[in-house]
Design brief:
It contains 15 helices and 20 strands. The chain is of the alpha+beta class. A hairpin with a 5-residue loop joins strand 8 and strand 9. This is FAD-binding protein.
Amino acid sequence: MKKTLIDEVPLIDVEENQTKKNWHRTRNQWGAIDKLFKPHNKYEDSTTPEKGFEPGLAGLQEIVQRAVADNKVIRAYGSRWSLNNIAFTNHYLIDSSALDYCLVGLSDPSHVNPEFEAKRNRFAFVQCGVMVKDLNQKLQEQQLALPTSGASDGQTFVGAASTGTHGAAHSVGSMQDYVRGIHLVTLADECVFVQRESEPVITEAFCAWLGDTKLVQDDDLFNAALVSFGSYGVVHGLLIETEPLYLLERFIKNCDFDEVKNAICTLDMTGLGLPKGDELPFHFEVAVNPYFLEAGKKGAFVRVLYKSEYTPERAALRKNTAVNLENDLIDGIGRWFDPVKWLIPKGLQIALELSFPVSPPGELEVGFPGDQFGNASSSDPTSPSPLPGTSIEIGVPFERIEDAMNLIFSVTEKHVFGAPLAFRYVKNSSATLAFTKYAPITVTLEMPGLDDNLADEGHQAIFEALAASDIPHTYHWGQRMPANTEWVATSYGEEVVEGWKQQRSELLGEQGCELFSNELMKKIGL
């Protein structure tokens, strides 16, 4: 057995023959598990070292070695937020939720290279179990913030970044795009810290502080590992770059689809009647009821966020109601929706009205980023919705948004199912397998809603229609996707996919590639 970082025995809870569902209780996902491991940031004698992450890291190393010895596949999960099996195996699973160490600011100047000294206190090292909700709070206490985040805050940061989670900040990118380093547990006797050679933030001294960690500086490897959904080893932690705390001012409008269609296709806010006129907001998203497109139906819901400088005076205008907004549409629709087919159009409209409470004319609701991207139930062990949830999300080039939108509406005319169509705009990512790959802006089209047979039929029809079209497209790695080997190669190109596989093989070797794989990866040709 490989040596752990320290001599003490890390505390690891082990349960056999467990059954797990994801947070949204999606049908036909997850299931029986041979062994479930839960490492803790403490030793078996309940002691905790000065560097609070050490026991958890040693625990991850030990679990990986157990999987090697038992010839089992090993995967790790955070909040079980993914709507597919990308983080699942029925062999050995790691519950990372107790690994919640977070270091905000690097106090030792020797840990960063001189050219990054000015940003030293804005870097944060985030262990794999840290939830976005908790990270927002820790950063806010230091007057820092994440540059962007997803619609909800229930994910772990590592899980969200590893699957390419994004918001609608068209000038910022996705959550992986402010990651600066990746700390991996592999088969080797030492861990690996990967960063870009072109952006060498961290020094050997920081890797020595982590303990038994090899520094690897390689742009191609970093970009490949950035969105790799746990297949490049167990991600122990990520180094991220935050920014000074800012405020977001929210405005929500309900209108007819035709009133917002031009803005959806062009990002031209002219005539939309927003509080700041034609200014393009920091965050722009639209959710549309596909069955309420006619004039007078009010089937479009616009949510914008304007970014403003933090001042104590402006922050004092925050309202407690900001945290009650149902940002997670899957959860919100599941709570308020009646799944009888003939009631779907009206039921979906009611769910959207509850999820997007309209702002008074011209009134902006001020909040911190953590206020605007969160809801009260995200820390619950499972969704409070009485119904299971699912979703698909498609990425397309900005110039093809109208074609993709019309294609989806042509499907929903024939296949009625309980999901809106939400549009968001994201700066393209440099991660090799980022689904937000299209420059300069990727438009994402998400359909979050009920998980039932109607959704199955609708999703499959969309998959087939897109495959038969000439619209370039990708799928979100944490949501439902076609279960075939063709779409990945078509979306990213065979050369890119083979390069991603080659980087993985060089890092892990044949044994490691098998150890950190799973059934879904094999189904889609990775």
